[in-house]
Design brief:
Elements (H helix, E strand, L loop, with lengths): L12 H12 L7 H11 L5 H15 L4 H10 L18 H11 L4 H12 L9 H6 L1 H11 L5 H9 L12 H5 L2 H7 L8 H14 L4 H14 L3 H10 L1 H5 L3 H6 L8 E9 L2 E3 L3 E10 L5 E12 L5 E13 L4 E9 L11 E9 L2 E11 L1
Parallel strand pairs: 2-8
Antiparallel strand pairs: 1-3, 3-6, 4-5, 4-7, 7-8
């Protein structure tokens, strides 16, 4: 449902009614009609987070005054847990308001709130709501995260990683873990070879975040994991965890992924087509690589676009291309289609845009195209 329009529009009187009816089934005194009407009246001009807050506030006004009793009602109203292959953002969006209720009103009651967040996570996610508990109730919250990492439910295991990501998108930052991620890494140890790709993706994203401030720490961890846990699952986690370091050309990260010999690879005939491109069209990038060495090499090929800014400066953005194995003396032609389309996260400006091809982090060829708006 939420994919058909802006997500914020999901949180209206209809969502409140669905949530209210599930609560009324276990708490008959809950006034569904007044709850739905109030939410519908208040959310009109608001953005996503404020709409969710309105729903949480409406719950507070209609549930038992004693918080542990109120949260017990909410937990009792939850539906069956999600199956392993069901995504948290495909079902149960209205439970975002339940997690927000715990975040807003349950901070003084960790004994009731933390188990409730686990139950919510089995149906949606508690990754945003748990973060203030990390800061206000560190020991019991981190004990919970360590326990969740061993839980049979993959949604709960993912919660163990996602809830303590130092830089979780759209959530409050955890500056203590930005400065020292050691407690986070202790939790991730249990998840490096998780059977669920869903969980491993969170672990890799977490490590990729940490590598921004602590690249050597993450590289040390990746080396140890690769040595001590040589499974396909661990290899997948490490590869995705190092993706930003690879884009930056970190030679240690590249070596961990088996990429060697970039200095021996030559790039011939880089061409960009069309050389004058309208916004909304697709740029074709073609190049021929040559392994000039007498030994074979596995190389990671990326390309970088220098986007023109309003002030005339440029910002370099690296994009993944491919990984290829080149035999001794082999030449291989590559082509990549790069869409240049409007994005909410990037503003395009007309003018020259340089493009570079890099092999194992080493720039091998460059050219440019003209962008027209």
């Amino acid at each position: 449902m939420a994919g058909e329009y802006s997500l914020k529009e999901y949180f209206d009187g209809s969502a409140a009614r669905r949530l209210g009816e599930s609560i009324q089934a276990v708490h008959p005194d809950f006034d569904v009609d007044s709850y739905a009407a109030e939410v519908d009246r208040r959310v009109g001009p608001l953005e996503l987070k404020d709409r969710v807050l309105v729903m949480a506030q409406g719950l507070r006004d209609r549930l038992p005054e004693h918080y542990p009793d109120a949260v017990a009602v909410l937990v009792a109203s939850l539906r069956e847990p999600l199956s392993e292959d069901a995504g948290i953002f495909n079902e149960g969006f209205h439970l975002m308001a339940v997690a927000r209720f715990v975040e807003e009103y349950g901070l003084k009651h960790p004994d009731a709130s933390l188990p409730a967040l686990v139950e919510i996570t089995k149906r949606h996610t508690g990754e945003y709501a748990v973060r203030p508990f990390v800061q206000e109730h560190y020991e019991p919250t981190m004990a919970l995260m360590r326990a969740c990492a061993l839980d049979p439910d993959p949604h709960v295991r993912r919660f163990a990683s996602e809830g303590i990501r130092p830089r979780l998108p759209w959530a409050r930052r955890l500056p203590e873990f930005v400065a020292d991620p050691t407690p986070v890494l202790e939790v991730l140890e249990h998840l490096r070879s998780d059977t669920s790709k869903y969980v491993r993706t969170s672990v890799a994203n977490n490590l990729n975040d940490i590598a921004r401030e602590h690249p050597e720490l993450v590289l040390d961890l990746a080396e140890r994991w690769t040595r001590d846990s040589p499974t396909p699952e661990t290899a997948w986690t490490v590869r995705h965890a190092l993706r930003t370091l690879v884009k930056k050309g970190d030679q240690r990260a590249l070596a961990l992924l088996g990429a060697t010999g970039g200095e021996h690879v030559l790039a011939h005939g880089l061409s960009l087509s069309p050389q004058s491109l309208d916004l909304g069209r697709v740029l074709s990038v073609r190049v021929e690589l040559e392994n000039s060495d007498t030994r074979p090499h596995t190389v990671v090929v990326d390309y970088a676009v220098h986007h023109l800014r309003a002030d005339g400066s440029r910002g370099r953005k690296v994009f993944k291309w491919t990984t290829v194995e080149l035999c001794a003396g082999e030449r291989r032609a590559l082509e990549k289609k790069h869409p240049v389309r409007p994005l909410s996260t990037r503003t395009y400006h007309p003018g020259e845009h340089p493009v570079e091809v890099q092999v194992n982090g080493l720039v091998k060829a460059s050219s440019s195209f003209e962008l027209r708006l």
